[in-house]
Design brief:
The complex is a heterodimer of chains A (202) and B (756).
Chain A lengths: L1 H28 L5 E11 L7 E10 L3 E8 L3 E6 L2 E5 L13 H17 L9 E8 L2 E8 L2 H4 L4 E6 L3 E9 L2 E9 L7 H7 L3
Antiparallel strand pairs in A: 1-2, 1-10, 2-3, 3-4, 4-5, 6-7, 7-8, 8-9, 9-10
Chain B lengths: L1 H13 L4 E2 L2 H4 L7 H13 L2 E8 L2 H16 L4 E4 L20 H9 L2 H13 L9 H4 L4 H8 L7 E3 L2 E6 L2 E10 L5 H22 L4 E6 H35 L3 H24 L3 E2 H10 L3 H10 L4 H25 L6 H24 L13 H12 L5 H21 L14 H14 L6 E7 L2 H20 L5 E3 L8 H16 L4 H9 L3 H12 L6 H8 L8 E3 L4 E8 L4 H13 L3 E6 H61 L5 H23 L4 H18 L9 H23 L9
Parallel strand pairs in B: 1-8
Antiparallel strand pairs in B: 2-6, 2-7, 3-6, 4-5, 5-6, 9-12, 9-13, 10-12, 11-12
Classes of the chains: A alpha+beta (202), B alpha+beta (756).
Chain lengths: 202, 756
């Protein structure tokens, strides 16, 4: 009996270590450029609609500082995350940036979640989500399941996959609602003056 | 008489006559209205709550620490886990989807057009933040209900790691555990059990995660430490003073008899005083009993004068009777003035002191002389020689006395100008700095609403109260924007008035759900099938208003139900606030709101209690001045004007000098110093009267006075060393007052006696 318990304990510890080491492998695979730019396509499925809702645009990710998400079709809108806060702008340069109606806590959480997910900074999400990772020759996949019921009301699970960069994020909202974001990363480049202005210090 | 008093006290004990231990009530600090009583009930309910914070830089280790803590609490008989207050899931609001909008959305729909609303919903659907409604797009296509649900809850900055609320602070993550103590743990014994359980909890956590940080915030910890400290001090000071007094009297009389007889007179006084109070008052104030008992200390004079006087019992009695009688009369006249005091505890002190001193005096007159023989229980010659030398050493010229009087009055008057008052009942309790610092750290990390500062809104009906709260909303937001306060919370944020809900429904109907409006426009933009808009319109039309009972059921376990209550003639709602930086700005804003018809008032329960206490102190001080005038009148009848002034001078000098020195030393005048001054006045009048009545017994009288002063200093004066502010104030005031009174009596001594 004692021997069986010992084996269970060893296997459990091995499982923990394996999960941790898989996550380390994922982190090791991710490129460490401080700026990642590219195009995205977002596909949202809603249970009551027989077709997906597709939008696309461009993005700029500053790993440690923020995100600029520019939806170009079907309706233009801009979103930026800087200083841990989400802001939106509709109507281009002529308009002003404003916080979306997420509430202070919702805003902070959304900012953290988006930047951490797209940067592949999974370890920092460990407090909010239970993480499982697996790797293969094609790349890696990390599954995040909310630890609290309150978070699960918004998100049932998140699946992120990629190689040197995050390529795909699938958000399962529950009740048949999902959002799939595909990211096509462009070759590394510097920020344009406009992007620097948008993401620069407040 | 002593037997009768004993019988009365016994009866009071058997009948379970109530003892009021709440110190606020003793000083007339009571709930002035039903809102106060409601708030007091809430405070009382929160006293059994304990907040425990576990901190660690690594999340895994923190989870292990929390697990260990929860296992310990689950097996504890004293501590119980309380759920972390959080809003119920938004799903319960779906039935009311057409009637609820957050304050922000309500403002937006005032000016928005149907096409704005449709475009915004479409854009949100394509934006990555579109996931921010917990109800999903199908149930809440415009996100309004999700935003209402989340706006109900104040942002306290917590994140939930599973079911563990966590907040960052001081470079680590803190997990918060809300605990309560069982009903059997009230009182000092309960506090001791709670503290032991919390200490064991801390040990259980650090046994598992050695470098986990542990903090707790519990009233029990403060109560326990204060009680422990007081008990330790009282026993230390008590033992010290008993030993010193025993040695003093033992050395002087070489016999234990005087000590026994002195204790007998004081004990009989206390018994009779207690009997009188229990007969005249339905409920006894503990603090009145304590201070009343202290005043009986004056009775030690009577016994000492009799013991030191020469001759047998009857001769001694004849020698001291006039002095004791006049001393008792003047003290009783002074305390009789306190019968007009504005609060019951002071009236009880007066009754206790008058009857107690009367009883002690009767014991000295009727009982003690039977044990005294001419050749027995005499003081040492050395004592009398010392008194002789003291009298001989008194300055012969009156100049010194005048200099003392003028100097002391001058210094005292100048000090009085600098004297500050302090009316804070918290001085009654000793809280060590490390506990206060820990409480501050916990508050800084956890945050939360101010417990003593709030806005109180009144209205005739429940609905009109909710409407009043809604009218305050823009102003409160403005105060928040200006940084006057950090955040606020009231009921209408989660339960809009029926009127507001109807307006919301009408506005949504016109702007969103009517044919051709936002819903249809969104459906067209999405190319959604016809049934999509129809089913959402049907759900909107089926919506019913959120009612009070359903809301209360939903919100059980959250802070909301405690924010509204029906009182005798009105409904009252609280606006809880946090971090109010500019109270005056809020008070002025509330006044402006009242002028515009909303009955809202700023309430600071601590400040209100301090105001009441200040009024009580001022009232008592006024009564004391009147009593002093009455005493002067009595002395005038006996000694004439000049003689009365001379006898009253030591008391005046003691009061002015003591308060003046407090002013110079930056020590505040408090209600506890006021009580101490009562004792000083009683003693100093006795000193002067005995000195005046000494006649040919000057040396024994001075010896008795010096001995009385010494025993007072050894008993009450030692309290000045206490770390409990109230006791220290009492003790230091007695020391200063008695020393000044003794020095003044000595300087103003008249050998000639009354006849002169």
């Amino acid at each position: 009996m004692i021997r069986r318990c010992a084996w269970v304990a060893v296997l459990w510890l091995w499982g923990l270590t394996a999960a941790a080491s898989e996550l380390d492998v994922v982190t090791a695979q991710l490129a460490q450029e401080s700026i990642v730019t590219g195009q995205f396509t977002q596909q949202r499925r809603v249970a009551s609609l027989p077709f997906p809702l597709v939008s696309s645009g461009e993005f700029v990710l500053q790993r440690e500082q923020g995100l600029y998400w520019h939806v170009l079709t079907p309706a233009e809108s801009e979103l930026r995350i800087r200083d841990g806060q989400v802001q939106e702008r509709i109507g281009g340069e002529a308009s002003t940036w404003a916080a979306p109606p997420l509430g202070e806590q919702g805003n902070r959480m959304t900012a953290r979640l988006l930047t951490d997910l797209l940067s592949g900074r999974f370890a920092s999400l460990d407090g909010l989500f239970a993480l499982t990772a697996d790797t293969s020759d094609d790349g890696w996949r990390v599954r995040l399941v909310p630890r609290s019921e309150a978070s699960a009301a918004y998100l049932h699970a998140i699946s992120v996959s990629g190689g040197a960069h995050v390529d795909r994020v699938v958000l399962d909202h529950g009740a048949g609602e999902t959002t799939t974001i595909r990211l096509d990363t462009a070759p590394a480049r510097e920020l344009t003056p406009r992007e620097r202005d948008i993401l620069g210090p407040p | 008489m002593i037997a009768l008093a004993g019988l009365l006290v016994g009866l009071a004990w058997i009948n379970g006559q109530g003892i009021e231990t709440d110190i606020r009530r003793a000083f007339g600090v009571t709930a002035t209205d039903d809102v106060d009583r409601w708030l007091e009930d809430q405070t009382a309910a929160s006293l059994g709550e304990t907040m425990v914070l576990l901190g660690h830089a690594e999340r895994d280790q923190l989870r292990v620490a929390v697990r260990a803590a929860r296992e310990f609490v689950d097996s504890s008989e004293v501590l119980q886990r309380q759920p972390w207050a959080r809003p119920p899931p938004a799903d319960s609001l779906l039935a009311h989807r057409g009637h609820l909008l957050s304050a922000g959305d309500w403002q937006r729909v005032q000016h928005a057009t149907a096409s704005n609303i449709a475009a915004e919903a479409l854009r949100r659907l394509y934006a990555p933040t579109g996931m921010a409604s917990s109800l999903g797009f199908d149930a809440d296509p415009f996100g309004t209900l999700g935003r209402f649900a989340s706006s109900r809850w104040p942002d306290a900055g917590f994140e939930l790691d599973g079911d563990i609320p966590i907040k960052a602070g001081q470079g680590v993550d803190w997990a918060v555990l809300r605990l309560s103590t069982g009903a059997q743990t009230f009182g000092l014994e309960g506090a001791r059990h709670t503290v032991a359980a919390l200490d064991a909890l801390a040990a259980a956590v650090t046994a598992v995660v050695a470098d986990a940080r542990y903090l707790d915030l519990s009233v029990s910890r403060h109560t326990d430490r204060a009680a422990e400290q007081s008990k330790r001090e009282m026993s230390r000071i008590g033992v010290l003073s008993i030993i010193a007094i025993t040695l003093l009297l033992g050395w002087l009389f070489r016999h234990p008899g005087p000590l026994v007889l002195t204790v007998l007179s004081i004990a009989s006084g206390m018994l009779i005083g207690f009997a009188a109070v229990s007969l005249l008052f339905p409920r006894l104030h503990l603090i009145a009993m304590v201070f009343g008992a202290a005043l009986i200390g004056i009775a030690v004079d009577y016994a000492l004068h009799l013991l030191i006087a020469p001759g047998d019992g009857q001769q001694r009695l004849r020698a001291v009777m006039p002095g004791i009688s006049l001393g008792l009369l003047t003290t009783c006249v002074a305390f009789a003035g306190l019968l007009m005091a504005p609060f019951e505890s002071l009236r009880q002190v007066a009754v206790f002191a008058m009857f107690g001193l009367g009883g002690a005096c009767l014991t000295v007159f009727c009982v003690l002389p039977r044990w005294l023989r001419a050749d027995g229980l005499k003081p040492r010659e050395a004592g009398l020689e010392f008194a002789e030398r003291l009298l001989a050493g008194r300055p012969k010229s009156d100049r010194w006395a005048v200099l003392w009087i003028v100097g002391l009055l001058g210094v005292g008057a100048a000090g009085l100008l600098q004297l500050q008052t302090r009316d804070d009942l918290r001085a009654m309790y000793f809280s060590p700095p490390e506990l206060i610092a820990q409480a501050r750290t916990v508050r800084a990390i956890v945050g939360g609403w101010d417990a003593s500062q709030m806005l109180v809104v009144r209205a005739a009906e429940r609905q009109s109260l909710l409407e009043s709260l809604e009218r305050l909303e823009p102003g409160l937001d403005d105060l928040k924007r200006r940084g006057v306060l950090r955040d606020y919370l009231h009921v209408a944020r989660s339960l809009p008035s029926q009127r507001r809900q109807q307006l919301v429904h009408d506005r949504l109907d016109a702007l969103v759900y009517a044919p051709g409006q936002a819903l249809d426009q969104l459906a067209a933009d999405l190319n959604a099938p016809d049934t999509w808009a129809q089913s959402r319109r049907a759900a909107f039309n089926d919506s019913t208003p959120l009612r009070f009972d359903g809301w209360r059921e939903d919100m059980a376990g959250t802070p909301y139900p405690d924010l509204i209550a029906p009182l005798a003639d009105a409904w009252v709602g609280l606006v809880r606030v946090s971090d109010v930086g500019d109270v005056e700005a809020v008070v002025q804003w509330a006044a402006a709101q009242r002028a515009s018809g909303v009955d809202v008032r700023w309430r600071d329960t601590i400040a209100a209690a301090q105001r009441q206490l200040a009024a009580a102190r001022q009232g008592a001080a006024r009564v004391l001045v009147l009593a002093a005038a009455a005493v002067l009148l009595v002395l005038g009848l006996r000694y004439g004007t000049r003689g009365a002034v001379t006898v009253a001078l030591p008391s005046l000098l003691a009061v002015v000098g003591t308060l003046g020195l407090c002013g110079w030393l930056g020590q505040p005048f408090t209600v506890f110093r006021l009580f101490a001054l009562l004792l000083v006045i009683g003693l100093s009048i006795d000193y002067a009267v005995f000195a005046r009545e000494a006649g040919s017994h000057a040396s024994p009288t001075l010896l008795a006075i010096a001995l009385s002063a010494l025993t007072t200093l050894l008993s009450f004066g030692l309290l000045g060393l206490s770390s409990t502010p109230a006791l220290a104030e009492f003790g230091s005031t007695v020391v200063l007052g008695v020393v000044i009174a003794l020095a003044s009596t000595w300087l103003l001594w008249r050998r000639q006696g009354v006849a002169a």
